[in-house]
Specification:
Number of helices: 4
Strand order of the largest sheet: 6-5-4-3-2-1-11-10-9-8-7
Radius of gyration: 16 Å
Distance between the termini: 28 Å
Number of domains: 1
Order of helices and strands: HHEEEEEEHHEEEEE
Largest sheet: 11 strands, antiparallel
Number of strands: 11
Oligomer: single chain
Mean pLDDT: 89
Strand content: 35-45%
CATH superfamily: Lipoprotein localisation LolA/LolB/LppX
Low-confidence stretches: 13-17
């Protein structure tokens, strides 16, 4: 699966510059047509402090009501479930419930995931005080968002993001997030399905 992620990255190294504003708006409009979304995903995590990486996999679910869940098959039993009021995770058998009533790392991650899934690239950039750079190839619209210099940041703040959207479907297929601690998290989405009925159980925070 690491080869699949590397393949996507290499494809976007060959590009032509286009009308960035128009493409960004088109991606947002097309994603407004998506009411539900599900996809297999692979997640790669690299922590600079420990120089360790980890590969995870599962299935992601998302709907226009602002709910998102990642149900892991590897490691089996882990999950991340987000709705308007809740951000619940289960990692290595330990369950955590993060409050969303004030800004913190959970609210920031929620905003980045939701806005990226909605195709709202400008909202992602604004939330992270980032500049947008755009390139494309035959398959993907590729965006690099880099935090502007000269602003105070916290360790968990996002410093850089990469987003790739499929040019045929306008759907997010790749997301790379790097924070101030050097932790890099990469999501690669495969075989997406849109506007199909989703079981309510995948969004159940009490599972």
């Amino acid at each position: 699966m690491k080869r699949y992620i590397t393949f996507i990255m290499l494809l976007c190294s060959f590009f032509t510059f286009g009308q960035t504003e128009q493409i960004i708006e088109q991606i947002k409009i097309k994603n407004e047509e998506i009411k539900t979304f599900s996809s297999k995903f692979t997640e790669l995590q690299y922590k600079k402090t420990t120089k360790q990486d980890m590969e995870l996999a599962g299935k992601m679910y998302f709907d226009a009501a602002g709910r998102l869940s990642m149900i892991y098959s590897d490691p089996e039993g882990d999950f991340v479930i987000i709705d308007k009021e809740n951000f619940v995770t289960k990692r290595n058998g330990k369950k955590n419930h993060f409050k969303l009533d004030k800004p913190n790392s959970a609210t920031e991650l929620k905003a980045n995931l939701m806005n990226s899934m909605h195709g709202d690239i400008k909202a992602v950039a604004e939330a992270n005080n980032a500049e947008i750079r755009y390139k494309e190839d035959k398959q993907y619209y590729c965006f690099t968002l880099t935090r502007k210099p000269g602003n105070k940041t916290k360790k968990h703040d996002v410093q850089r993001m990469e987003l790739r959207y499929d040019k045929r479907t306008f759907i997010l297929v790749y997301m790379n997030i790097e924070d101030g601690m050097g932790t890099i998290t990469t999501y690669a989405l495969q075989h997406p399905q849109v506007n199909a009925n989703l079981p309510e159980s995948v969004f159940n925070t009490k599972r």
